[in-house]
Structure formats: structure tokens, C-alpha cells
Design a protein that fits this description.
Blueprint: E1 2-7, E2 10-14, H1 16-36, H2 39-62, H3 69-94, H4 120-133, H5 164-173, H6 175-181, H7 186-190, H8 200-224, H9 229-255, H10 273-282, E3 286-288, H11 291-296, H12 303-308, H13 317-331, E4 337-339, H14 340-353, E5 368-372, E6 377-381
Parallel strand pairs: 3-4
Antiparallel strand pairs: 1-2, 1-5, 5-6
Protein name: Fatty acid desaturase
GO molecular function, one term: oxidoreductase activity, acting on paired donors, with oxidation of a pair of donors resulting in the reduction of molecular oxygen to two molecules of water
GO biological process, one term: lipid metabolic process
């Protein structure tokens, strides 16, 4: 395979040997982290868990003073932080198996469950397997548009997509529910590619998990505050909304801002390890920010590193990011990163632009990546 990308001084060509050498160098980075895993990684995840539980206890306690607006807002803020930490830095990363090497039940990917409506086993199938195996491959990675959005020019326009901005807004507000139904593949049911009978086990699991969450957030905890039932119910709903908007924004910034590349199934046939790594680098984007910002994003602000090494503890991503960037520079590959405002702005711009027919939008030509194999050559737009 030969990869050509536009560099500062003209085209940069990577030979098949260079691609595999890049793969070996990335393997070496991963090996060095795995060899160094130990007590500080264990201490880190348990400190985050302790902080998450502290924020939840504080939020639940402050709800008893929820009749006073400042305390209600403080309760919502504390619960929102708790749910973000549980969803991002703990749940997402633990269920990736990043801490399975510890062999401790509380952080074991096979047993962990999170504070959201999506069953853990279904998320691990749609995310850990489908998304991370087929990252940004059309018709294989269902995270491209989540089955409802047009988020890439490779998706054929349809009048349905005129509602793109509205669908994106609703997905953001109800993101945990969107993640829950993701594995149902509702669009394929509409197209007749999947039968309702296939969904019975999934629906049963979703009803069980979502039912527990609804009872906890909107019945049990509000009842515990007695006459403040509706204050607490509204506060829990607001905390879930905060978590949904934040999670949606971080995830979309890592996958869909300007410059992120998608692929066809044919381009990714019989990939070598090096070629898989290149696809992850071209199909991901990072977000610049402070240490606290990275923690609150579950370190998915380092989405490039996460797609390269999804099973190593995410707290290591900031350490290895300079090494990954250096390799990108060495081989002439783009390393897509920018401020949160820049990345989320380009995501929403893309959502609006792709809602209208292509003939109404004048797009500037972009530098390309040309993937050439012995049996064929295909040009891919970045």
C-alpha cells in the first residue's frame, strides 16, 4: 500500500515498508506503556472513582435544600459532574478493558455497569467491536451519523437530511437514549435489512436497564426528598441533560470535525497492522485543553491516541500524545487537533452544510490521501 498526503512542501509518499515501520513504532509505544502499568494507574482510577462518588453524595445531599435556587443549582452541578465522570473517565474506559490487568471486580470490563440507560453488553458490541474495528468505514462503522445524521459527504443526500440540525440537537439532548437504541439499527429495520424478531433480546435488555435508571432518577431519589419530589426530579433530569450535552460534544469533536477522513470497505480490505494504524490517525481528532478538561472528557480529548490504543488506560494518553504527534510529523500524516470551540464549531458547520443538496454548496477542493494497493488504486478525500 502507498499513501500520499499533501505536506507543507508538496506530496509526501509513504511506501508499504514505511507504513509497516510506522506500525512497529506505534506498537513500541504501546508496549512501553503496558510494561509500565502499575500502582500509579491503579491509584489514578480509584481516585477518580472516589471523586465521582463524592460529587454524587454531595449532589444528592444538596437536593434536600433544593427549594433554594442556589442549592438546587449546586446539586445539579455536582450530580452533572458525577455522571460525566461515571460515563467518561470511568465507565467508557473501564468497559474498554483498560484496567482488566488489575483483576479487581470494581474495574473489570466484564462486570462493570454504568449510570446510564444503555446496557453495558450492547454498548461494548456497538462501540468496542463495531466502531473500533471499523473506525470511519462506511456501512460498517455505525457511529458515522448514528443512523440518523448525514455527517460525511460520502453519505448520499436525501430530503430526510433537511432536518439534520434538528436531529443533531435532539440526539445531543437525549444522547444516552440515542446510545441505548444505537445497537437496534432502526434505519436497517426501515430499509428491511433487519427483522423486528431479531431485536427481542436487545429490547428486553434495554427495558431492564432503562427501567432501573428511570426508577432511580425519577422515582426513588425524588421520593426520598419528600415534599421536594418535583425539585429533585427536575434536578436529576437537568444533571442528565448536562451529561448528555457534554458527552455528545466531546465524542463528536473527536470523530467529525473538519479534516477527519472516512473510508470505503474496499479501501480497508485485508489491512495490515500498519494500515489499520494509519486509518485510525486519519479518522480521529484531538481537542486541546487543561488537565481538568482532559479528565472530564475521559481523556477522549485524545481521540487519536484512544483509537490507536483503546485498551490502555486513558490517563496515559497525554503522556504519549507528543510521541504520536512526532510520528505523524515524521511520516507526513495529519495530526488533527484544536481548541474545543474550533472543533465543535466545525462539527456543527458540517451538520448544517450537509443538510442541503450538494449542488447548493460550493466546497473548496481539499488535499487528498491516495491509498494504492497492488490490485487497485483509490483516491480518498480528507
Amino acid at each position: 500500500m502507498t499513501i500520499l498526503t499533501e505536506g507543507k512542501d508538496g506530496p509526501v509518499i509513504l511506501t508499504p515498508e514505511q507504513v509497516e515501520e510506522l506500525g512497529r513504532e506505534l506498537d513500541a509505544i504501546r508496549a512501553s506503556v503496558v510494561e509500565d502499568l502499575g500502582e500509579r494507574d491503579r491509584d489514578y482510577i480509584y481516585k477518580v472513582i472516589k471523586a465521582q462518588r463524592g460529587f454524587e453524595v454531595a449532589g444528592r445531599g444538596l437536593m434536600y435544600l433544593g427549594f433554594l435556587p442556589p442549592f438546587w443549582l449546586a446539586a445539579v452541578g455536582a450530580l452533572g459532574v458525577s455522571k460525566i465522570l461515571d460515563n467518561m473517565e470511568i465507565g467508557h474506559n473501564v468497559m474498554h478493558g483498560q484496567y482488566d490487568w488489575m483483576r479487581e471486580r470494581g474495574v473489570n470490563s466484564r462486570e462493570f455497569d454504568w449510570d446510564t440507560v444503555c446496557p453495558a453488553d450492547q454498548w461494548k458490541h456497538s462501540h468496542n467491536f463495531m466502531h473500533h474495528t471499523y473506525t470511519n468505514v462506511h456501512d460498517m462503522d455505525r457511529d458515522i451519523g448514528y443512523g440518523i445524521l448525514r455527517i460525511d459527504e460520502g453519505q448520499k443526500w436525501h430530503p430526510y437530511y433537511l432536518g439534520n440540525p434538528l436531529y443533531a440537537f435532539l440526539l445531543m439532548v437525549f444522547f444516552e437514549w440515542g446510545v441505548m437504541v444505537h445497537d437496534l439499527e432502526a434505519d436497517n429495520i426501515v430499509k428491511g435489512k433487519r427483522k423486528w424478531a431479531d431485536l427481542k433480546p436487545l429490547l428486553k435488555g434495554q427495558a431492564r436497564k432503562a427501567g432501573k435508571q428511570v426508577v432511580k432518577d425519577y422515582v426513588a431519589y425524588p421520593l426520598l426528598t419528600g415534599p421536594l419530589f418535583f425539585h429533585t426530579l427536575a434536578g436529576n433530569a437537568a444533571a442528565n441533560l448536562v451529561r448528555n450535552i457534554w458527552t455528545y460534544s466531546i465524542i463528536f469533536c473527536g470523530h467529525f470535525p473538519a479534516g477527519v477522513q472516512t473510508f470505503t470497505a474496499e479501501e480497508c480490505e485485508v489491512e495490515t497492522r500498519g494500515e489499520w494504524y494509519v486509518r485510525q490517525m486519519l479518522g480521529s481528532a484531538n481537542i486541546k485543553g487543561s488537565k481538568l478538561f482532559h479528565i472530564m472528557s475521559g481523556n477522549l480529548s485524545h481521540q487519536i491516541e484512544h483509537h490507536l490504543f483503546p485498551d490502555i488506560p486513558a490517563n496515559r494518553y497525554p503522556e504519549i500524545a507528543p510521541q504520536v504527534k512526532a510520528l505523524a510529523d515524521k511520516y507526513g500524516l495529519p495530526y488533527n487537533t484544536g481548541r474545543f470551540s474550533k472543533q465543535i464549531g466545525s462539527v456543527w458547520a458540517k451538520i448544517f452544510v450537509l443538510s442541503v443538496p450538494d449542488r447548493f454548496v460550493k466546497r473548496a477542493p481539499k488535499p487528498g490521501v491516495i491509498v494504492m494497493r497492488n490490485r487497485k488504486a483509490t483516491e480518498v478525500s480528507v
